[in-house]
Design a protein that fits this description.
By secondary structure, this protein is an all-alpha fold. The longest helix has 102 residues.
Length: 125
């Protein structure tokens, strides 16, 4: 066996370490590009998320506004129907009172207006 000289040892080391160093540099470059691309994708996703959130907030506000308007219309319609029904009941009650007063007048029965003396009570006193 021949003794290895420093020059020969350097060539062997360069032959073994050189490709490893080259592979490490290529892998570092690939990882750097990949991490830069990942950062860009995260930034785009973040912006898209913000846009979606602001869009959904606007849609939500529009839906709430439309719901409030529809609710007000329903309440107004219900109030109007309730008021109309109440007016009909009041009118019907007034008609019934008038008919009852006519019947009582025809029969000669019923209550006297306040302050008017009842002829039966006057005779009893």
């Amino acid at each position: 066996m021949e003794p290895i000289t420093l020059t020969g040892l350097g060539a062997v080391i360069a032959a073994v370490v050189g490709p490893m160093l080259g592979c490490i540099l290529v892998m570092m470059r690939y990882q750097h590009k990949d991490s830069a691309m990942t950062r860009d994708l995260i930034g785009e996703a973040r912006q898209e998320t913000r846009d979606l959130i602001s869009g959904s907030e606007k849609e939500t506000r529009d839906l709430i506004s439309a719901s409030e308007k529809e609710t007000h219309k329903l309440i107004e319609r219900h109030s109007r129907e309730h008021s109309e029904g109440l007016d009909k009941v009041i009118s019907s009650l007034a008609d019934a009172r008038e008919r009852l007063a006519r019947i009582e007048g025809h029969l000669g029965v019923g209550s006297r207006p306040p302050g008017e003396a009842d002829p039966d009570e006057a005779e009893a006193a």
